[in-house]
Amino acid sequence: MAVDDIDTFRSELPEAFKPGALPSDWDREWHVIEIADPDGLSEDDLWRDQQIDVGDLWERWSGISEDAIAPTDPIGTEWPDTFPGRPRIWKGRRQPHGGSGPACPPPECFAFYLPFHFYYPDWWGVYLIAEGVLELASYIAWSANRQISMHEAVRVVRLFLYAHESFHHLTEAFATRLEVTHRSPFFTTTFAQQYAKSYGTNACQEEALANAHALRTVKRALRKHPQSKLVQSALASYVEASPPGYSLGTRYIKESAFVEERCRFAELNQNLAITGAAKKDSSIWRVFPQAFGGISRINSRVNYLVRRNSSLARRLSVDARYLTYRDLERKLKAAQCAFIRSGKGSHQIWQGPTGARAPIPNHRGDIHRGLLSGILKQLGLSIPLEAFLQL
Ligand SMILES: [Zn+2]
Q: For the chain, what is the domain count?
């Protein structure tokens, strides 16, 4: 299924969707910055040229401080009840490597997935909270005895969190296939109920599989990396120190164990969704590995969140590097440009005063100022960039 097909799906089966409200001022409170290559381990524009060190985070993870934590108070608490992978606020303590005590904060304290069943068309996708990425990276660097740099740890954690959240997308894609064949809503009903019911216990297969998927993804990406073993064991120690359900992720790293558990997960959800269907051994799902194929280009819907006016935002100088889409719209209108239509894929078509047109990325996040000169030129605007920014 391609992204454009979600429109078709929604018009044919509107009852499968449950529009979710976002916390008010969401994009006023956060910079939303696209991640260009979430599948890889390449250096990220956001962190490039930054002096990243463990600093205070190191002390906090090392267990010297036992303060109760709520990593970044993700986005407030106004989320619709129980969608899988929703942001979590963690009130426990961090557990130092090898120590005992309350669990480490799970991935949903650092990142989350907004499903298209709730957030299509604008905001569905994967979000990584920049502070959270830094936080977890400091744990990984510390856990690996600082034998990997913070820059490397940040890249590894970005891939790990993205892969974890993308498994929630794969689960949503599986639910969607059942909805298409049975013409009933399942994702917002039985899938969400099962997730909510099992969350926080070892029965929560979705989080175990999401962590396993993330560990497997990093393992593949690091195949030739000299520190591969060290990084993998640091991530595994984080997973094992995570809350029930999440902590089972290390059980399913091997292909056979992963597929087997995913089959059980599929069969359970199928049975809950479709009452009256014959119960079969979960191995029946082996004949349908595509059941968990994602919607194409989830990797084009991955963003960092940086809280505006935070010390991190100042340090990264994001205000100087990015412009919100809303501000860009306002400035384009002030420059006599007009919105024409949504383009194919992820672009919106705008027209300049002379009739020249330009596509603008419409993932609704912030626009890198480096892109702007090109856009202004394409729209036939002769105004200098600095003057445009003053509009
Ligand atoms: Zn999750």
A: 2
